[in-house]
Design brief:
The structure holds 2 protein chains of 2 kinds. Chain A is about 30% helix and about 25% strand. Chain A is of the alpha+beta class. In chain A, a hairpin with a 5-residue loop joins strand 13 and strand 14. The longest helix of chain A is centred in the C-terminal third of the chain and has 28 residues. Chain A is globular, with a radius of gyration of 27 Å. Chain B is built from 12 helices and 14 strands. Chain B is globular and about 55 Å long. Classes of the chains: A alpha+beta, B alpha+beta.
Chain lengths: ~775, ~290
């Protein structure tokens, strides 16, 4: 990479080209799709968390005006629809059957048992109320810890409700580290259940053409090709090339739109069965009940230290609530995406982690922004703070003493990963300077003397982005390659279309990928179009999740451009009667080294390639390249975030006064977009710390099933963030980028929790679990002596 | 979900609206801003067969001061209340409360009459109406009647408004000199309804003693209620910090406060006393302002 970024498009804060259409209501979302004869689906969902379906009487619904069909699980099974797949396998993973429509036993409240399809949504809504389902209500189990070996089994194939038990790290070495430790600190930590709440609810519009025997499925997907493969080959049993999946504009996802859900399967199958397009859009309450949930861990952690505060060992035992089914990537999130990050930014002698994935009668749990890494960061950063407190040293100092030093990269952790690059002390130092850390501590001491409670929380996070070398992923259980593809097509006029397998659902790829391409080709951004989200247009793709688009998808684009430049050089050399090895390409021009006046412009070469009137021997016409980029490693963004909170001593209400974030996401393609990504992630992380939490009652009813109960963050609850970056390019990929989409949600929960707990130190509070509500804080304040 | 089917009516006059209400009885619901009713209809918890839209009826959108009272039309939005100079000056507890309802979008559509008639147990305005001893004007087939706020809120989403009556106006007597009011609330982090909200209206005598105090609470219990224990504890006393704190401590006496997702009953009782203290302190402060 050139280091001169002053005039380059790569690194420029270009406004998002997507925004004009979004802000003026011209986006095309799945629910906007309407075809001739489109019908509307409404799902009949179980109100019970655990029940046997004795019978379904749909006669009245079928007789209702405007109703085209009512289908049950039995209809789909008879029609050959297979259970939903699991795409990440662990050793001895027990997978119970999960069907798009339940055939026998309902396992969470909201699971669909039938679908009503009608000419209007109103008719479908009305008729759905007429479907009479006879349920035999069964006892439910909701708490994962109690579910282990309890009386009620969610799936007969896992009678103790444990779907998997998995370990990582060296148990013996960890035991040895604890044996020689001067101090051991233990804590139970909860990471509660979250619900993604993308602004656009999930939706699908499926149609079938008898003329071509093809299905076209619009669906809110982060990975349309993955959707196509899984739906065609595993669920519907139709030829993959006869299914086109289009994920048009998608309004946020946060992981929740990775998965193949029952609704798109049913809509696709039904569109052929009834000979009409079928549309479904979730209501918000369906989003709460049926979008895959996130997190939900109970963790017992122990950290072993020497007398100087150096971390010798970490032992972690986690129960991950999987919900009612093993979701598509559910097994990977609390294992490989979690426990492999338990070394944090620190040199820890030995780590051992056991994870049990446990079924309960709740919505299945899978990836949600950060997916495993926020859970790991929370464990590490809370335990480090607890250790500092135990040893009486400042939280900054304990981090400093244990940071992996800049000269230790690449750094092999005790939990499988090799960190690519980093400079942790510098990022923390910058954050401390911005915060005015010492002055804050002075202010805190003064406030405490006056009976006011402020807290300062630090979170030095690591994350792993850019999933991943396919070979490694495969060895770990992924049933997919995790490369990315890109086709860069140069048109005869020199205009360029980039077809990327990444998918943008808020990330701004149409802007950033155009920047990458225009920058590399020395052409105007307006000459580059970015196409994504359509299996009919894009060759193949793995989609966007795990902050992988820039690192993996962007690198695939880079590779294709390199191929184009190579071909262009050979063609230009031919036309200029020069040797190909003497050709240079810069600023949109091919020229002979040393003779900058002997040039061919990019558009000239594009035209020459398509005219093909004069080509070097053996060269094919056209200028078009496809690449599949498979990274050699993850990338590892890092940084330090600092939160400053004030606690209302009367009510326990925490107010976030300041939030400082210094992130290192490697090279930055578009600072404005990266800022936006970080801000959004930080907001979701703060929300987890303070407000968001999915709560079930003992019968498996979701008590926080609407925006009136579930505390999504609002702008007026937040301070202006103070952000900066350090730049440590990733050596893994040619762009030197790392990933920015999840950093905030990984760092922020621990930063805010550490701040609140720090504020409560005068009350003898050692730890509190999120969400840190006023009631939780106030009760903690009452528990202390002297108040 | 789509609401169940209903007949939509758009009367041009109060009489016409009342006639429709009389005709359809409890099959009919009045709609203005729709911010309470429409969500219930979309969940099909409410399934009115007739909707009587009162937005075309002139004269329900004014705030004005008469010789002895401030009159607020039923269709005045929360935003208008919040921004009214007259309300801020005369009825600061009401302007406090209006500014804390929902968010700007809700306040721009939701109406004072709609909120009172809906009588959500966690709504802000009922506590304020009790503290100001407001009169609610209802027009029925037999003409208009006024209902004291204290007689209006009788249970969970239940008022003494008859199905054939239209709430048209809120009247609040112009408070005497040296009167201050304030509303303090602990909002639910998601809905922003009151986990607890307390409205206090205090009139000071020349001696600086409390001549009268009226306290309303919302968020705890099935309906907003007046708390006479606190009022009695203030009346006749110089409202110093100790007096106020002691009085505020009685805010949940006689109330059935329960544990819920927002915290245990003990916390909510405490929270109520904190907000009662803060509301009374600010009301007294405002009463002392010239």
């Amino acid at each position: 990479m050139s280091t001169d970024t002053s005039e380059r498009l790569f690194g420029a804060s270009v406004n998002r080209r997507e925004d004009a259409r979004f802000l003026t209501g011209r986006g095309l979302y799945t629910d906007d799709v309407k075809m001739h004869g489109t019908t509307h689906a409404v799902f009949v969902r179980s109100p019970h968390a655990h029940a046997r379906v004795r019978s379904i009487d749909a006669a009245a619904a079928r007789a209702h005006a405007g109703v085209r069909a009512v289908f049950t699980g039995q209809d789909l099974a008879t029609g050959g629809v297979q259970p939903l797949p699991v795409a990440w396998l662990l050793p001895n993973l027990k997978i119970g059957e999960r069907r798009a429509l339940v055939t026998d036993v309902v396992r969470y409240a909201g699971e669909a048992v039938a679908v009503v399809i009608a000419d209007t949504l109103q008719a479908a809504d009305d008729a759905a109320e007429l479907v009479n389902v006879d349920y035999e209500v069964l006892p439910a189990v909701v708490d994962a810890e109690r579910a282990i070996g309890g009386a009620v089994a969610v799936h007969p194939g896992a009678p103790d409700n444990v779907a998997f038990e998995w370990t990582i790290g060296d148990a013996e070495a960890t035991n040895a580290a604890f044996a020689k430790a001067d101090r051991v600190v233990k804590q139970r930590l909860l990471n509660r259940r979250l619900i993604a709440n993308a602004i656009e609810p999930r939706a699908t519009h499926a149609s079938y053409s008898p003329a071509s025997d093809e299905y076209t499925v619009y669906v809110t997907s982060q990975n349309p090709h993955v959707h196509r493969l899984l739906m065609a080959a595993f669920v519907l049993g139709i030829p993959e090339h006869k299914l086109r999946v289009i994920a048009p504009d998608v309004g946020g996802a946060f992981g929740s739109k990775i998965f193949v859900y029952p609704e798109e399967v049913v809509a696709a199958w039904a569109s052929k069965a009834i000979g009409r397009p079928v549309k479904w859009t979730a209501e918000r309450r369906e989003s709460f009940l049926t979008d895959m949930h996130g997190r939900d861990h109970v963790t017992d952690a122990e950290i072993a230290l020497d007398a100087d505060g150096r971390i010798l060992g970490l032992r972690v035992d986690t129960i991950a609530n999987l919900g009612a089914h093993v979701s598509l990537f559910g097994p990977s999130v609390p294992t490989y995406l979690y426990a492999t990050l338990l070394s944090g930014q620190y040199t820890i002698g030995a780590i051992h982690c056991r994870v049990r994935g446990v079924h309960t009668h709740t919505t299945p749990v899978d990836a949600y922004r950060g997916a495993g890494r926020p859970e790991a960061c929370f464990v590490v950063e809370r335990m480090v703070d607890l250790a500092a407190k135990e040893l009486g040293i400042d939280p900054v100092e304990i981090r400093r003493r244990n940071f992996i030093a800049p000269d230790q990269f690449p750094y092999q952790t005790p939990v499988a990963l090799t960190y690519d690059s980093g400079n942790y002390p510098v990022a923390m130092q910058r954050a401390l300077e911005m915060a005015g850390y010492d002055a804050l501590r002075t202010e805190q001491a003064e406030a405490r003397r006056q009976g006011r409670y402020m807290g300062i929380g630090i979170s030095s996070y690591i994350e792993a982005c850019g999933l991943a070398p396919s070979q490694v992923a495969g060895a770990l259980g992924a049933q997919a390659g995790l490369w990315e593809s890109a086709t860069v097509r140069v048109h005869p006029t020199g205009k360029v279309t980039v077809f990327t397998g990444s998918h943008s659902h808020g990330q701004g790829h149409e802007t950033t990928f155009a920047q990458v391409a225009a920058d590399a080709l020395g052409i105007a951004m307006d000459d580059v179009e970015v196409v994504h989200g359509d299996t009919g247009r894009v060759p193949f793709g793995m989609g966007s999740y795990g902050s992988r688009s820039g690192a993996v998808g962007g690198s695939a684009i880079h590779m294709s451009i390199e191929k184009l430049k190579e071909k262009g050089k050979r063609l230009a050399a031919h036309l200029l009667e020069a040797a190909p090895e003497d050709m240079e390409f810069e600023g949109g021009k091919f020229f002979v080294r040393g003779s900058p006046d002997r040039t061919k412009g990019f558009a000239e070469i594009a035209l020459a390639a398509y005219l093909a009137h004069s080509m070097p021997a053996g060269m094919e016409p056209g200028l078009d390249a496809t690449s599949f980029y498979d990274p050699s490693n993850f990338t590892y963004p890092f940084g330090t975030h600092i939160a400053v909170v004030d606690i209302d001593g009367d009510t326990g209400k925490p107010t976030l006064r300041r939030y400082i974030a210094v992130d290192d996401v490697g090279n930055v393609i578009n600072p404005k977009i990266v800022d936006g990504q970080l801000h959004g992630g930080i907001v979701q992380g703060i929300a987890q710390a303070l407000w968001e939490c999915a709560i079930y009652d003992d019968q498996g009813q979701l008590l926080t099933g609407s925006l009136m109960e579930y505390g999504v963050p609002k702008a007026d609850q937040l301070p202006s963030f103070e952000t900066d970056r350090t730049v440590t390019p990733s050596p893994v990929n040619p762009l030197g980028v790392k990933g920015a989409g999840e950093a905030g949600s990984i760092a922020a929960p621990a930063a805010v929790a550490n701040a609140v707990i720090d504020a409560l130190a005068p009350f003898g509070v050692r730890h509190l679990d999120m969400p840190l509500t006023p009631a939780t804080i106030w009760q903690a304040m009452q528990g202390a002596p002297g108040r | 979900m789509y609401a169940t089917k209903f007949q939509y009516h758009a009367p041009q006059t109060i009489d016409e609206a009342v006639h429709l209400l009389a005709q359809h009885g409890d099959q009919a619901k009045v709609i203005a801003g729709g911010h309470s009713l429409i969500p219930l209809m979309k969940l099909r918890f409410a399934q009115p067969a007739h909707l009587v839209d009162v937005r075309r009826i002139p004269g329900l959108t004014e705030i004005r001061e008469t010789a002895d009272a401030i009159s607020i039309g039923a269709r005045v939005t929360h935003r208008t209340v919040e921004r009214s100079e007259l309300v801020t000056r005369r009825l600061p507890a009401l302007s406090d409360a209006a500014a804390l309802i929902g968010d700007p979008l809700v306040r721009n559509r939701g109406t004072i009459g709609g909120s009172l008639a809906h009588a959500d147990p966690s709504a802000d305005l009922p506590a304020v109406m009790l503290a100001y001893d407001a009169e609610i004007v209802a027009v029925g087939p037999a003409g208009a009647r006024t209902i004291r706020a204290g007689d209006f809120f009788i249970g969970l989403m239940t008022t003494t408004l008859h199905p054939d009556e239209l709430l048209t106006e809120i009247r609040i007597a112009v408070p005497p000199p040296r009167t201050g009011g304030a509303y303090e609330k602990h909002p639910h982090p998601a809905s922003r309804f009151a986990i607890v909200g307390v409205a206090a209206v205090v009139t000071l005598e020349a001696s600086d003693r409390v001549g009268s105090a009226r306290i309303g609470i919302t968020g705890v219990g099935p309906a907003a209620s007046r708390v006479t224990e606190v009022e009695r504890a203030l009346t006749g006393k110089v409202p110093d910090a100790g007096v106020i704190a002691k009085a505020a401590g009685r805010i949940t006496e006689g109330l059935d406060v329960r544990d819920d997702l927002q915290g245990p009953a003990a916390y909510k009782r405490h929270l109520a006393s904190v907000h009662a203290r803060r509301a009374i302190e600010r009301a007294v402060e405002r009463a002392r302002q010239p």
